[in-house]
Amino acid sequence: MNTNREVRTEKGERLVRLAACAICVLALGWPLSAQRGGGARGGGAPRTARDTAAFDPTGYWVSVVTEDWKWRMVTPKKGVFDGLPLNPEGRRVGEAWDPAKDEAAGEQCRAYGAAGIMRLPTRLHITWQDANTVKLETDYGTQTRLFHFDNVPPPSEPSWQGHSVAQWELAGGARAGGPPGGDLKVQTTHLRPGYVRKNGAPYSDKTVMTEYFDLNTAPNGDQLLTVTTKVEDPQYFRGTYITTSDFNKLPDAKGWNPTPCSAR
Questions:
Q1: Rounded to 5 degrees, what are φ and ψ at 16?
Q2: Is residue 113 part of a domain?
Q3: Which of 9, 97, 111, 182 has a 20 to 30 A CA-CA distance from 215?
Q4: What is the C-alpha to C-alpha distance for residues 84 and 184, in angstroms, rounded to an integer?
Q5: Which of 145, 156, 246, 216 is nearest to 187 (CA)?
Q6: Taking residues 179-201, what's their average pLDDT?
Q7: pLDDT of 254 over the 50 cut
Q8: Do 121 and 10 belong together in one domain?
Q9: Cβ contact 131:51 at 8 Å
Q10: Which residues pair with 145 in a beta bridge?
Q11: Is residue 256, in this structure, part of any structural domain at all?
């Protein structure tokens, strides 16, 4: 610290003035640099996934089955794997499908795992479980999926719905072909082995599933949630299985009817 004698000198007074100016510049410049850095204004909490959503996914939705009707609305016969990229091992496992055996083993939900449930004729109920977690429930099979936007570690054991990591892809950085507002990207791993089609067409615990949720408006004004799904399985697939599933938004919970999994 300067002594009184030093401050009184001309050189000392000039240094004090310069220091004071520097402090003013730093004080004025700090809020601008903080804003440019993307921090929360006023030192508040960072913005959440709900705050930065590209669209509102919440509400009740019902599947619109306009393609692959005979494979989605009813359980196909054993060995009917049209449109599926199963390799020889995948076909062998699928052709050994035995629903009675699944029931006896308590695995009647094999077709209701994350890689299969969105192709079944189900209704969805989507809410925010918290500000960084989307909760998606299905009435068909009574399943619950959680989409985590934060760094939640995966569970130690695989499950039917696995571990899903989500992110918003906003306009300007969105996937090519997505709507102007952006989309929701979800990647799911840590899955229990299940069926990609209800007649035993398998996917393994090595499966990685990537989904893109887009909100669209039909010509009649209906809101459609379009889910583009890529299922990759090095064990049972010879290539990527890609599907697009549509869900129409409903005004309320009318028709919501939770039912248990069925192996048949």
A1: -65, -45
A2: yes
A3: 111
A4: 25
A5: 145
A6: 93
A7: yes
A8: no
A9: yes
A10: 136
A11: no
The Cα 109–Cα 217 span in angstroms is: 33
Tens-digit pLDDT profile for residues 8-28 = 333 343 333 333 333 333 333
In the predicted structure, residue 173 carries a pLDDT above the cut 80: no
Query: Other C-beta atoms within 10 Å of 1: how many?
Result: 4
* 217 token code pair: 């408006």
Residue 87 one-letter amino acid: N
Give the Cα separation of 249 and 236 in Å (integer). 34
| HEC per residue, 34-86 | HHHCCCCHHHCCCCCCCCCCCCCCCEEEEEECCCCHHHHCCCCCCCCCCCCCE
- Residues 190, 82, single domain; the answer is yes
**What is the per-residue pLDDT for 181?**
79
Cα separation of 212 and 236, whole Å? 23
- Whether residues 39 and 66 share a domain: the answer is no
Maximum alpha-carbon separation in the chain: 99
Let me know whether 186 and 82 are in one domain: yes
Number of domains observed in the structure of the chain: 2
Cα 168–Cα 109–Cα 131 angle in degrees, nearest 5: 25
Q: Which residues pair with 187 in a beta bridge?
A: 165, 210
Tokens 């004090």 belong to residue: 16
Phi-psi region of 119 (alpha: psi -120 to 50; beta: other; left: phi over 0): alpha
Q: Which domain holds residue 24?
A: 4-43
Specify if 206 maps to a domain. yes
pLDDT in tens, 75-126: 999 999 999 999 999 999 999 999 999 999 999 999 999 999 999 999 999 9
Q: Do 135 and 126 contact (CB within 8 A), yes or no?
A: yes
Amino acid at 20: A
